[in-house]
Amino acid sequence: MPWTQRLWLRLQTLFRHGRAAQQLHEEVQFHLDQQIAENMAAGMTPEKARHAALRTFGNVPLIQEDARRTWGWIWLEQFSQDLRFGVRSLRKSPGFAAVAILTLALGIGANTAIFSVVNAVLLRPLPYPDANRLAIIWSGLGSVNRAVASTYELFEIRERTKEFDQIGGIWVTNGTLPGEGDSEQIKVGVVTSNFLPILCPRPALGRFFQAQDEAPNAPWALVLSHGAWARRFGSDPSIVGKSVRYGDGSAVVIGVLPEDFRFYLPGGFPSNIDVFYSVPVDGSQPGGPGWLHLIGHLRPGSNITRAQAEADTIATQIHNWDGNQNINGLRLFVYSLQADDVREIRGTLLLLFGGVGFVLLIACANVANLLLARSTRRLRETTMRAALGASRGRLIRQLLTENLLLAGMGAVAALGVGWLALRAILAARPPSLLNFNRLTPDFTVLGFTFLVGLLASAVFGLAPLFAVGRLNLIQSLKEGGRSMATARSRWPAFLVSAEVALGFVLLAGTGLLMRTFINILRVDPGFRAENVLSFQISTPKYEMLHELQQRIAALPGVQSVSAVSQLPLVEAANWYANYWKEGASEEEQHTVMADHRSILPGYFNTIGAILLRGRDFTETDDAAHQHVAIIDDALARELWPNEDAIGEKLNVSDSPKGAYQFERDWAVVVGIVKHIQCHSLTVMVRPQIYLPYQLAPRPVSIVIRTAGAVPDLAASARAQVALLNKEMAVSQVAPLTDYLARARSQSRFASLLAASLAGIALLLACIGIYGVLSYSVAQRTGEIGVRMALGAERSDVLRMVISQGLTSAALGLAAGLLLSLVLMPLLAGLLFGVTAADPVNYILICALVLTVSALAAFLPARHAMGIDPIVALRHE
Length: 876
Known about the structure:
Number of helices: 28
Distance between the termini: 63 Å
Structural class: alpha+beta
Oligomer: single chain
Largest sheet: 11 strands, mixed
Strand content: 15-25%
């Protein structure tokens, strides 16, 4: 028969299966009737003729199955039968089905939620063209390895690179939204002309910056974000080419960004920047201030390793070529943009992903125990099916199909659990995840969920499959299933011990993270954030700022008012520079850096910082008088360890001639303040130098300390700003406690998620202990009855059952302790104030697990105590 005809016949049997089966039945029945007729013709009675025909013809169902096997679709028919049987079986045991599906939903759903975050943050490419070829370039000078670059450095890198085809730069500052209407403070991107095309293939309207936009006589050109265009200009399609009011003059709008464009850049970058203007890049100012974040686009065939090797060479060439001491020791660091963007959260996410894997294994162990108990109850059914001719392979396929069905239902339920968990994660996410608004399930997440479901079905189905594979048909028929139950008794205890071991690891890690978070809560940040309100304004003249300070101080409930160029624990637009004392060598002058802050008098008192020695600034500490500075105690100990720093001279970077007109200057130290944690609550990144606002005007944050809650204080402060300058916008109105909470958020995020996973693991382990002991009590009812009939006390039965549960728990604790000693060092980078091998943590977790295990074992033990010996023996 030609293959095409065979294929056609097979397709007919597939799509017309009912008709083909009926035809097969009729054909077999025809031959059977013919044989019966022949037997009757030979003189047999109808009944004997039928029996003889069946003996001659053979097993009719087996003949039909052999015939259907030749159709080529027998596997599909068997799978369909197994699936229908599995559905009926689960319908008959709704309690078992509900518990198993819920357990799998918790395990798989937790994995789905964490994988959604891992996928969005670590795996999914950034939404930029050629995202895998984008790199960020950091400068290194002195003790700083992640510094911004100067325009001179950018110019030299561009001239010398062969690994990058484009390198652009951006600096983010504050400004006022262009156009008519009420002022609104926004984020402004100062960019090189080639920066936006590196990240955005084309604008929604108009064009990006070009070389002519940077010509000396060219009109000031702006590119707007889609949001700024919509809310300020009503989505005017003819906005391109129009002149709009901006700052003290006007500018021409040349383009509008796409609606979905966002920034995903490291270093505290906001995701939305509303206005962009360009600056020229040349090599005329070697050693100038660094202010640009550099983004590069690698050439085809290049990679980060080759780019880093080239950057090392370029850094050496720059300072050898120029000979300027300010850039001697220059280093350049090249990182993948995506990798650098998530460097703060990567370790936390990977550890959490490993943790949810443990939760899934515990869930699988629980379901395996449920299946073992269920297979024991179905032993008679399994034995009869084997006795009637079902092969071991057929029985195993039936179990695999049921497991697959159970895992599929668990995976579907896990999508709902994962969605709810993801919402909770989004609500608790730290600032390092705030820019990642793409935390939504996609086909990758769906595929992962069902793949995990398949793997779970394979894992929890192993124990029942091994039991079926060892089925002794004759022995099982003789003993009614008891032999098989006894043979399986070691599996549940082993699985419970495995659950306890995995749960112990999660609890140990959670304990360390929780203690870390508690230690961070106890850290002294160097200021008192309670009852302090802050808001930001653009660079004002000193006279206006001083007047604003006096006006706000007169408001009811206000105790003190001041201003600072950058609030503590705010990373964006940080200002730091070299410093040195008199007599320092040239090498010492360019090896260390300090954070610089511009403040008004009363700043330390307003935020609750401690002035250790000396005095605060006064109104006369301006450019016309002796230049002064206040330093923190860390810098004082470094430069003058055994001396009093008051009255000493310090070389600093200030700008007495105007904002950002930096120059080196000598200032006399007039005060020493206790170090304020400006970057992190757990690490002292750099010492601090404070300058009077008159010597370093910059955008500032106003800080207001009150005696308590003051209603409408923010509105009153806004009104005072408007009275002095209605064009000055107010932004980022927030209590200082918000910034403190943000600094603690990553530790809180890791602690909360770890605690959630550990709680689920502990709950599942308790359910496992309870289930195994309940099953054991049910299996040993007769034995317990005999013991009690022979004089055993109820307390003896109680100890026997609880000791059985605690033995499994103790074995799990021993294994978990060994596993923890291996895995806990992975948490070292997330810990503060506690070590990975902290013995107190392990003692507390051991006590917790044993207590909870004893409670889980108590209910089955109590049931065993209530067994009536007469009833038990009669049942046996």
